[in-house]
């Protein structure tokens, strides 16, 4: 098989997001910030979110990690920015189904946009954690009671 | 055909398989080694013919099980040249051995203001237990630095080990930077200052002849699964007088002499430390693994692995953008080789190699203080054993080249 299968995982879009991450950095004004670690490699990801009117007004990430974790975090920010909190949490759940090889509806797939491409990580079980890290961090932030509206 | 040292590869059926449609190249031996048929058969034989609990019962199977379990202890004692079989305690792993030494002996001898000295290249299992002792006793945990090429800096050692030092605990061989540490010299230094010397032998005992008396260590720890035995069996060696003075880490059946209503007394060494039904089949398998290693000869294993390193390291160093950690001189480097490709996370590198059937480790290797010291987040690591072949070394080198080209093309 050699490296041919790698093309499924490392699509151009994914390499592009890893090389040129979107919404990279920290928010000066955030409703919440969370740092998560991938214990297998020591990678760290920080996610900051600003919520206004029950909507994700801004979301950023920083930290270090592999191509998959960086691209997945970058794609997450592009997909979830400006989404209502409830909708964002639904999409995060759909994404976690996707990367663990569970089917999701066409409608959700459409809403996840390019992030769907990360779904091929399901065939690389040791890398699922890398893809999930940023999304877990944001979901934890959105679930926190303390993360209220900033007007 | 190249079949490893003495064609030993033929004894390891697991190595003969395809992974991702490519013949498997197993280079994660520093994490765990594969098991030869001889060891697997020893486990099978024990359960098919001798299975019983040890040190109790008068029936024949119990006697046979006990005899095999204790015969394996003699093999371990001889394997590391211990003065007495009483010095060999079975544990679950190197980690458990070090935890027992720290929690029991460490807390007995370390007092407020004392020093515990370890090094920058240690595995977490030789760091965290000492942090616990230092915190509990209000002692100071100190680190011996490394030279620029990743070797233990003896000048730093002479500075860090003082008359306040009670414990010096150092890896015999490093699990990332691929060096063998001068344990004998360190033991002399520790003893001059009245400190006890402990060596973490997890990465050394599988690859070289260990002589605990010559090293003059007070304690030595290693794992079975890194030298052909199954997981769940490890060894704690201690000098007899120290083990006699050390309190058991666990209590219960098997380890008692007599139990009164309020108090109890312990068995003699080595049994005073082995509470509960032990890992009998694991100990027997460890004995069988040692037989296998003795047949090959530890000196031959070391020499053969050195040839593999000499065939691999210079070629890795020629790959542009590849960093090898630890010494670059093959004469100074063990079969554990940690590396990174510029601009590529080691997880991506390891996934690429896996697609080519090559198993390497990627991550912090349970050595986060070392990662911080080297200023990296993680590395990839290839590690050899005697059943690896020169073809495996070729596949590693060409595999890394191919992954490098894939990502160079993919990103551009």
UniProtKB/TrEMBL annotation, chain A:
Belongs to the NifU family. InterPro entries: NIF_FeS_clus_asmbl_NifU_N. This is NifU family SUF system FeS assembly protein. NCBIfam families: SUF_scaf_2. Pfam families: NifU_N. GO terms for molecular function: iron ion binding; iron-sulfur cluster binding. GO terms for biological process: iron-sulfur cluster assembly. It comes from Lentilactobacillus diolivorans DSM 14421. It comes from the Bacteria. Residues 10-130 form the NIF system FeS cluster assembly NifU N-terminal domain.
UniProtKB/TrEMBL annotation, chain B:
It is an enzyme of class 2 (transferase). NCBIfam families: sufS. This is Cysteine desulfurase. GO terms for biological process: cysteine metabolic process. Catalyzes the removal of elemental sulfur and selenium atoms from L-cysteine, L-cystine, L-selenocysteine, and L-selenocystine to produce L-alanine. Keywords: Pyridoxal phosphate, Transferase. It catalyses: (sulfur carrier)-H + L-cysteine = (sulfur carrier)-SH + L-alanine. It holds the Pfam family Aminotran_5. Its EC number is 2.8.1.7.
């Amino acid at each position: 098989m050699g490296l041919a299968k790698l093309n499924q995982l490392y699509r151009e879009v994914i390499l592009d997001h890893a090389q040129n991450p979107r919404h990279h950095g920290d928010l000066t004004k955030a409703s919440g910030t969370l740092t998560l670690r991938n214990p297998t490699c020591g990678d760290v990801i920080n996610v900051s979110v600003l919520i206004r009117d029950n909507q994700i007004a801004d979301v950023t990430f920083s930290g270090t990690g592999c191509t998959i974790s960086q691209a997945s975090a970058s794609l997450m920010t592009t997909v979830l920015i400006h989404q209502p909190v409830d909708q964002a949490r639904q999409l995060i759940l759909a994404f976690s189904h996707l990367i663990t090889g569970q089917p999701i509806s066409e409608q959700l797939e459409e809403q996840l946009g390019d992030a769907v491409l990360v779904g091929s990580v399901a065939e690389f079980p040791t890398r699922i954690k890398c893809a999930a890290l940023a999304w877990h961090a944001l979901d934890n932030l959105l679930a926190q009671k303390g993360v209220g509206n900033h007007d | 055909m190249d079949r490893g040292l003495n064609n030993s590869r033929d004894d390891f059926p697991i190595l003969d398989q395809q992974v991702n449609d490519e013949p498997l190249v197993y280079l994660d031996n520093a994490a765990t080694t594969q098991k030869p048929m001889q060891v697997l058969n020893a486990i099978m034989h024990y359960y098919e013919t001798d299975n019983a609990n040890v040190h109790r019962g008068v029936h024949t199977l119990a006697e046979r099980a006990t005899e095999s379990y204790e015969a394996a202890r003699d093999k371990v004692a001889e394997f590391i040249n211990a003065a007495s079989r009483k010095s060999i305690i079975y544990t679950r792993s190197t980690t458990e051995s070090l935890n027992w030494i720290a929690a029991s002996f460490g807390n007995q001898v370390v007092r407020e203001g004392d020093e515990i000295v370890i090094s920058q290249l240690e595995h977490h299992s030789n760091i965290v237990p000492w942090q616990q002792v230092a915190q509990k006793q209000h002692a100071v945990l100190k680190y011996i630095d490394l030279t620029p090429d990743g070797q233990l800096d003896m000048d730093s050692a002479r500075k860090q080990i003082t008359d306040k030092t009670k414990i010096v605990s150092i890896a015999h061989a490093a699990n990332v930077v691929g060096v063998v540490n001068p344990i004998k010299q360190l033991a002399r230094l520790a003893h001059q200052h009245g400190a006890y010397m402990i060596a973490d032998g997890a990465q050394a005992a599988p690859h070289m002849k260990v002589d605990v008396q010559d090293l003059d260590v007070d304690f030595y720890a290693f794992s079975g699964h890194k030298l052909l035995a199954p997981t769940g069996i490890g060894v704690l060696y201690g000098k007899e007088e120290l083990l006699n003075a050390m309190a058991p880490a666990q209590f219960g059946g098997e380890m008692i002499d007599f139990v009164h209503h309020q108090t109890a007394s312990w068995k003699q060494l080595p049994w005073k430390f082995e509470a509960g039904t032990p890992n009998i089949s694991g100990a027997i398998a460890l004995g069988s693994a040692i037989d296998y290693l003795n047949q090959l000869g530890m000196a031959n294993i070391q020499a053969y692995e050195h040839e593999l390193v000499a065939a691999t390291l210079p070629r890795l160093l020629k790959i542009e953008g590849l960093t090898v950690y630890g010494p670059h001189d093959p004469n100074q480097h063990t079969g554990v080789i940690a590396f990174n490709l510029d601009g590529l996370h080691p997880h991506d590198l390891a996934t690429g190699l896996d697609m080519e059937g090559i198993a390497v480790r990627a991550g912090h290797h349970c050595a986060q203080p070392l990662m911080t010291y080297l200023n990296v987040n993680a590395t990839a690591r290839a590690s050899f054993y005697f059943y690896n072949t020169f073809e495996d070394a070729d596949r590693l080198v060409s595999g890394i080249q191919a992954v490098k080209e894939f990502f160079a093309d993919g990103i551009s």
